[in-house]
Input
Amino acid sequence: NNDYFDMECFGNYQTFRGLTFAIDNGKVSHFKTVQQLKLKQLRFDIESLDLSGYDLIINDFEPITAWAARQQKKFSIGLSHQSAFRYPIPKKGNNLITDLVIRWFAPVNLPIGVHWHHFNSNILPPIIDVKATTNVVPNHILVYFPFQTLEELIRLVEPFSEYNFYIYHAVKEAKDHDHIHIRPFSRDGFQRDLHNTAGVICGAGFELPSEAIQLGKKLLVQPVGGQMEQMSNALALHQLGLASVSNSFNHQQLSEWLNLPNSLRRIFPDTASAVVEWLQYQDWTDTSSLVQRLWQCIEPSSN
Output
């Protein structure tokens, strides 16, 4: 599948269409989302997925394995950022419908969230590369917001000629024009620029802000309009003092943000290894010791 990379470690994996939201000009399009639904295919995929050879299903908020596990009475653990929304975390834009989606989109026996804070709940620190090292190239800024057009992003950063902006977007080849550097999607190139940058401008997703926080990069985020998860993430980042938040990127906010000092690194523990160790004990009813142990490991650190 050309849509994925670095998948060799998963061995004989399978891909399904599943369900996803359609984004149009930086906002969730409910009409286009409904248009692209293939419910018959979804039902077929759920009913044809054979889980008889598995003792446990670990689910990253994905409906096919979640519903297949439920139908076949297999114990399932939801390990995802979305699972954190089952608990009292900062939320914005949620309502009865979004709460039902969080609960029933990918139902599991044991939801375990991941977030930037535990919020006194069954929530773990982010699962990211803990061996990351970082450098800072002065005035180097990474921009990753594919929900807006490239032209709009260029207009946003163009006046700030004393900074070098590296904009990752859906282009076929790299282009450089004075202080603006357009780059095609590339894991290696993106990670190199992420490690070198002084700051990151991006959406209010979870993975990229987590990496930026781990690396001590200052953050300016804009949540995708109409997406409860991103609006809630932006609220949490603001409340925790981890990022500047914009409802719509503009020159004044960008100017103020560029003048902010670098952020402190927040060193997250090796959550993935701790979860593997916890799974091997097979006492999946006790998560409190795992949660407490991991959050006790976190402390800010200067660059």
Summary: The first strand starts at residue 23 and ends at 24.
